[in-house]
Design a protein that fits this description.
Layout (H helix, E strand, L loop, with lengths): L22 E2 L6 E2 L4 E4 L5 E3 L3 E3 L5 E3 L3 E7 L5 E5 L1
Parallel strand pairs: 4-8
Antiparallel strand pairs: 1-3, 2-7, 3-6, 5-6, 7-8
């Protein structure tokens, strides 16, 4: 017979886990080049606007060179555009 009960595995057992580096990478008024990441996010907190596109992991990136601009749409959602 076992002297101690079998221990189950625990998810994320390590105490030193790296973050996902999410957030706004370029703010309003900053210049951006084609393909450059503007925002890394989980879910659609920010929505892609003019001259930006949404990656499959909800990353918003630039489709042309320009200046980053944040605005609100009629549904009160924050939209990221490149002008």
């Amino acid at each position: 017979m076992a002297h101690t009960k079998a221990g189950g595995s625990k998810a994320r057992q390590r105490s030193n886990i790296a973050g996902h580096r999410l957030g706004v990478k370029l703010f309003g008024g900053e210049t951006v080049k084609i393909g450059q990441i503007i925002i890394r996010q989980v879910g659609q907190k920010y929505h892609a606007g003019l001259n930006t596109d949404l990656g499959r992991d909800f990353t918003i990136y630039a489709l042309k060179d320009g200046v980053v601009a944040f605005s609100k749409d009629p549904q009160d959602r924050t939209v990221v555009s490149v002008n």
